[in-house]
Amino acid sequence: MPVLLCDLDDTLFDHQHATRAALARLQAADPRLQQWPLEDLKRRHHLLLEQFHQEVLAGRLTIDEAREQRFQALVGGGDAAGLAQAYREAYTADWREVAGASALLRAVRDRGWAVVIVTNNIVSEQRLKLARIGLTDLVDHLVTSEEVGVSKPHAGIFHHALGVVDAAPSGAVMLGDAWPADVEGARAVGIRPVWLNRHGATSPDPSVAELRDLVPTATALATLLP
Ligand SMILES: [Mg+2]
User: Fold this and answer.
1) Phi-psi bin for 61: left (phi > 0), alpha (psi -120 to 50), beta?
2) How far apart are the CA of 78 and the centre of ligand 1, in A?
3) How many angstroms separate the alpha carbon of residue 6 from the centre of ligand 1?
4) Ion ligand 1 — residues with CB under 5 Å?
């Protein structure tokens, strides 16, 4: 069965939107976060998120511990438990799909393709996101780095994802927003990558197919499954 492999965070799930909304709310309420403009705060938070997320993926911290340590690092020490909890509440209040995600998955499945999520994160968190944004029933399998034991761009997670639907690399397409993890990872195992470039970054390799949006569905579908 042909398969669309698909990243979740900032490909189908609008993580950036939820993060931005949460940080704006926190900043308004906590003077420790008011020393930077919002864009600067977002950038600092993003770097720490990436750093501590590696500890979660490696099983060295729980997602809750990582969040608290991340905010502690952000504000330069002291008690950050309240801040971390407020962030989590604000972040989960603003979950939504990337515009057009569900319509696109429906169209892909109507073409007879399977949909498998391939994501560097923990299974409980990703299941919750899929459920909350209404994508659970549009996904055949969820493959997480937590369960497989290696993260994108490691070939092992792509081979695992192909295996769950018995697909060959030549019968698969990988859609994702992260160039090294999604595009290079897929390409290294012979899977055709499609780069989701929502912010108009310069492509490291213009020969790789690119989508700026998941809408309109027909346009996105034509790029994904030509
Ligand atoms: Mg992503």
Assistant:
1) beta
2) 31
3) 9
4) 7, 9-10, 177-178
pTM of the predicted model over 0.85: yes
**Distance (Å, rounded) from C-alpha 176 to C-alpha 161?**
14
Q: How far apart are CA 66 and CA 226, in angstroms?
A: 41
- 21-60: per-residue pLDDT in tens? 999 999 999 999 999 999 999 999 999 999 999 999 899 9
Domain ranges of the chain: 3-14+96-224, 15-93
Which CATH code fits 3-14+96-224?
3.40.50.1000
- Could you tell me if 199 and 14 are in contact, meaning their C-beta atoms sit under 8 angstroms apart? no
Other C-beta atoms closer than 10 Å to the C-beta of 159 total 14
* pLDDT, tens digit, 9 for 90 and up, residues 155-194: 999 999 999 999 999 999 999 999 999 999 999 999 999 9
